[in-house]
Each structure stands twice: as C-alpha cells, then as structure tokens.
Design brief:
- The structure holds two protein chains of two kinds.
- Chain A is mainly α.
- Chain A is built from 13 helices and no strands.
- In chain A, α10 runs parallel beside α12.
- The termini of chain A are close together.
- The relative contact order of chain A is 0.19.
- Helices cover 34% and strands 25% of the residues of chain B.
- Chain B has 18 helices and 20 strands.
- Classes of the chains: A mainly alpha, B alpha/beta.
Amino acid sequence: MTTHRREISVALAILALAILLAFVAPGYFSRENLIDLFLANVPVLIVALGMTIVILIGQIDISVGSIFAICGVSAGLFAKSGAPALLTALGACSVGAILGALNGALVAYVRIPSIVVTLASMVALRDALRWQTQGAWVQDLPAGFQWLGFSQSSYPYMSLVVAVVLSWGMAWGLRNLGAGRAVYATGSNEEGARLAGIHTRVVTFCAFGIMGALTGFAATLNAVRFNQIPSNAGLGLEMKVIAAVVVGGAAITGGRGTIVGTVLGVILLGAIGPALTFLGISAYWERAAQGGIILAAIVLDAVRSRTSQPGQEKHGSHLAASRA
Amino acid sequence: MPVTLLETKLITKSFAGVRALNSVSFDLLEGEVHALIGENGAGKSTLIRVITGAIQADSGTLTIRGCPVPHNDPGVARSLGIAAIYQQPSLFPHLTVAENIALTLESGGAWRKVNWKERNRRARELIERIGGSIHPERLVSTLSMPEQQIVEIARAIGADAKILIMDEPTASLADREVASLFKIITLLRGQGAGIIYISHRLEEISAIAERVTVLRDGETVATRSMENVDKTTLIGMMVGRELSTVFPKRAVPMGGELIELRGVSNRAGGLRDISLSVRSGEILGVAGLVGSGRTQLAETLFGLTPADSGEISVSGTSVRITSPAQAIDLGIGYVPEDRRRHGVVLELPIAANTSLASLKIVARNGLIDRNKERALAVRYLHQLRIKATSVYSETGSLSGGNQQKVALARWLAIDPKILILDEPTQGVDVGSKAEIHGLMMDLAERGLAIIMISSELPEILGMSDRIAVMHQGTIAGVLSREEATQQKILSLAVN
C-alpha cells in the first residue's frame, strides 16, 4: 500500500540490518545486549512519542534535552526526600508538563515561533540547572529508587509494557479520538481547522504540555538505570528524537506522520550505532551512519513528492489508509 | 497629435478553457490618464498582467510606442518603461527607501561596490520630482501607506517609466491623501507619462481621467471620452450581462427570523452599523465590490472577528458570538471563500473533512465513532453527489466542484439553522454550479436561513430573495427580488 510506504521501507531497513548482523555478528542478539539496547532507547522512544504530536501540529520542540535533564534531577531529589517510586515519577512528569506548558503558552497564545521559544528555553533551562546544581550530580539515592523499585530482572519487562502501552495508546488516540483528529487538522491547515471550530490554540498548548510530561517520564526511566543522576543528561537528545520522528515519515511541516513510523525510526537509529561496533566499524561512524539515514529519508521524500502527480501529491495521510 | 504610448489589439487569453480576455483592444496616449473599469472578474487584472508581461496572451498584439512586442515578459516590459503600482505596495519593508528604489534601478555585478551617497541622492531627487519629501534612509516599514505609494511611484519614474499602471491606488488612502496623489498624477502627465488608472470609484475617474474603457466578461464594451459619459451610463455599460443560466429558484414558504443584526460594528473588520435579518427559508444575497466588507460580515457572524458593538440575535435570543465553536453551537455554518486554503483540509480524507465541524456529535466522549462517521460521510456523498471512489479518498484528489461539496457537507453535518456561503460557486464547473444552486434551494425548503456572498451578479439576482449591497463596510441598501437589477446593485455598490 502506497500510503504506508515510509513505515515499510524503515521496517525493511531494520530487517536488512538484522539479517546482516545475524550472519556477521550473531553476538548482537545476545540477551544482555538486546536488553541494554532496549533500556537505553526506551527514554528516547517516549520523548519521540511526544515529539510526534508536536511535529504533527506543525511545531517543533528543541528544549526537550534540557527539560529531560531538569526532570531527571527533580526525580532524584523527590526520591531523596523520601517520595515513593510512583510519586517520584509523577513529580518528574509534572515538572516536565509545567515546563512544556510554558513553551506551549508562548507558542499558542503569545504566537512566537516554536523554534525560537524552545531555543530560548533550551538554553535558559540548561543553564539554570547548571547554576542551581553547580554541575554536581545527584548522589546517595535511596535504594528503592533504582529500577523504580523493581528488581533488576523484572525491570526490563516493566519498561517493555510501558513502552508498548504508551505507543499503542498514543497511536490509538491519534486515530480514534476527536483530539487526535484535531491534531492532524491543525497541522495540515491551521486556519482551516480554526474555521471548522477547532480550538487550534488549545491543541497547540496541550501538545507542548504532553510533550513535557512525557519527557519527565522518560527522564525518570533514564535516571533509575544508574546510581547517580547527571546534571547534564539529555545533551543532544532533541536531535536524536527529531531525527527518529522524521525518519519515521512525519512531515516537518505538520499534518502527516504516524506513531508506528516513529517507533520504527527510534529502533533503526537506536540499533545502528551498536551494530557498527559489532560489525567491527569504529563507533566514530555512528553519527555519520545516522546522518546518512536521515538524509536518505529526506531525499526519498523529495523524490517521491516530485514524481507523484500534483493534486495527489498530498502524501496519503494515515487516516486515509487506516480504513481504506 | 499626441504620441500613442501603448496599444493592444485583439488580445485573447484563456485559463483552463475559460476565456478571461476576448479580443480586447486598448490604447494609451502620451500625457493621458486612461481609466479602466469593470465589475469583479471583468478582465481588468488579466489585461494588466498581459501588459506587464506577468502572463502571455494567447493571441493579439502589444505595441509600445509603435514597436510591436512579440514576446513580453516582466523584464522586457520594464525595459520598455512599463511600471505597475498596486493597491498594496510591493516594497521590501526591511530595506530603506533608497535601497528599495535602487533595487530595480542599479545594474551591475554581484561584486560592485555600492555608492551610498549617490544612491541616497538619487532617491531623494526622485522623490522630490513627484513633490514628496521622505528621508531616503528611512525603513519602508516605518512609512505610511501613502508614503509607500510615493516610493513606488518614485521607483517607477526612476526606471524611466512612461507607462504607469495604477491598480486601485486610492483604495487604502484618505481623502486628503487622494488629493496629493492626484497632484502627483498631474505632475507625471506634464512630464509626458501615460497612466492606466483602475478604480471602482467613479467620481475619482471623472475627476482625473480623460478617457475610460469599460470591460465586461473579458470583452471591451466601449472606450469613451470622459466628457461624454455620466455615471449612470458607465454603470449601464459595466453590467448588462445576460442572465444566461436558468436558476433553480423556487418559492419557499418563509418562517420567522433566524438571525437578526442591529447596528453591528466591528472596527477590526471595518464594519459600521450593520442591520440585517434573515428568515427561515430565505436566501439573502450579499453583493458588493471586493473589499466592501462582505467577508468581514461573514467572519463577524461566525465569531472569527467578534463584533465590538451592536446586537446579534439568533432565533430571537440575543447572543455574543466570540468563537467559531460558539457559532457552531448556535447552528451557524460558514463555507469560506478560499476553499483550498480554508474550506477543506486537503490532506484529510472526505470522511474526516465531513465530520471535522461535528466532532462533538461524531465523537461523543472524545472517541470517534467510526461507523457513525462513515454513515455521515456516505450520506452526504450521495446527497451532494460527490464524485469520489470512497469516503476515505483524500479530499485533495477531488475536483474543485467536489471539494466545494465536501466543504458544504461539513456544515450540513452540523445540522445548521443558518448557513453562510462565501462565493459558493467560484472556480466551480458549470455542472457542479447548478447542483450547488439546486442544493441551496433544497436547504431553504428545509427551513435554513442562507446568507450567500457572491461577486457574480446573475447568481445574486437568480438565487436571492433579498439582496443586501455593501459599500465600504456598511449596508448601502437592501433590494427585494422584484426590484433588484444589475444596474441598481452596481450603483449601490459603487455609491
């Protein structure tokens, strides 16, 4: 089916990589490696889910790395103050949601372009945290904090459930909820959506709020993997996440993209780096390989929209595909 | 005998099979102001675009100062001394006055060094030549509308333009500013320039022009000396279009007033003291020139630019409409003018477009009922005879007429009491047009109050029960179906 072409090509790329690894470096598929890889990428995935919504409404958020760092430190401080695991996670989510909502309010109501707003908050929040912590990491975390109170062996299953439930829930919501429809309509044609009675500013505001909350949750899941929390976490996270969403087929101009695409994008970009090591290629090539994948995705897009007929070139939305 | 600066002979131009200009002939003499008038869509802009080289004519000849111009393009036109000044100045707001003027005047390579002194001196001199005084180093964004116009004119004469086209130059000017523009025009004429002057304001034309050419439906009606015509004659020449199509108008029993406006004003939209009412089963036509406030009226009723004074009642209850969502709750639907930009979301399938304004009904508790949505879309697909392979086809892949029907379906889906249609058949093929008109009658029969904004006088006359004519943000008059004629509408519209 033509409308899911991007998802299929990314899936095929992952498959090709897997087959190559199966022959050349079967060690890649060892249980330890896969679990490591998975746990490292769950936070990226969760942030990418939020970024998908933000990009779908035609905006961008490059402050997620800084919000991620703040939320991680907050989670640690909550835990040290004696909060139970669940409350710690909720606290970090709230901190993220508030910071995201701040971005959202500036974009939706003050009408400042999101790239500018989030550039400012990226820098401001990062430096505020550095000043507040003086660069110190959060240490002496209570025992119950690591693995969020789960045992080290059961934690991966818990994260798997979380990742699946969140991704599935988001995909389902975007398809089946009125709010999801409003997201696509706002991103495709904001003025048109407004004329149809959709509160486009509320949609924009909420998208950034959700983005922040998910970033807070991701930061918690990232922090519990270690016994100390760095105050400089999430450097470059925004680029990783945006790249995954774009590779997954979302249009940076909004209105087009799917959660399935984003999940596949995270898998491909997350798997490629360690794969290089296993294939005996220097790890220094990781970034280059990721860059190559992004470039390939964008070029594919450009070529496709040039070759398809005008009037039909409106890149099949997933809504069209979902029932056809 | 004055020199003929410009002459077009038998210019014909079609867009996608529709003839925009048909054998139009026009000429301009040295030192003359030649007015070009006609209704919306009469072909004025197309003719101007042919002269400035923005588009190529299909056939006919263009002659400048006796030399035929076989292949016109914007560069050629400029080198031949043709310059156009539009209603909205097209300057670069973040550059200075002198830079704006220099952009089209200074030639040279990319590495040439700018002589700022010379550049500013020339800008000042050009502006002084038309009696202005604007500092050359001011940013254009800090200039007022008339000042920007002066810069545009200075730029044109700097390029040695002998043929100046002014398209509605006074539309955004106050009376005093108009007077100083006319002074500039007189000055330019004295210097031997010819001016093609387009305006809807007939008083202005009689004040400044020597000759007038009337266009109608892409054809030249006549060229007259201004001394020999009066306003009524000109209006008569502008209309006189035959009611070629038969409209499916039926007598429909009318009910009570569904919407009533009393003294509604909207400063942001430029509306003043609008009083109107529409009854159940009635079609109210809203006529007026482009920019007379018709769309602003629709946007006020739909809550996009809320009214700041006056009273609006819907079904007898006084309301304040401040957002589209609220208008929808009150049963008001709005099919906007620019279908591709605002009417439908091209990337979404027909079904999603149909349900977009009625998500509250289709998605109870936020969850979209797919079956309900499907049923809704299928119902309107059949009822409006939308030609598509499925309700999940992308709206962008449909023809213009079918897209318009999808836009209509969206508003029928909210089960409206009041429907506002802005240019409902613009850019729609003849078949779909008739279908949309038939549909409007069906809706009126079902008791809807319909407000139809249209630039097409035959459509207004053919479909409306009453016609409100707008002029500069006010209602210039309301005509009943019986008394309305094209002449009456147009004379109210140009006032």
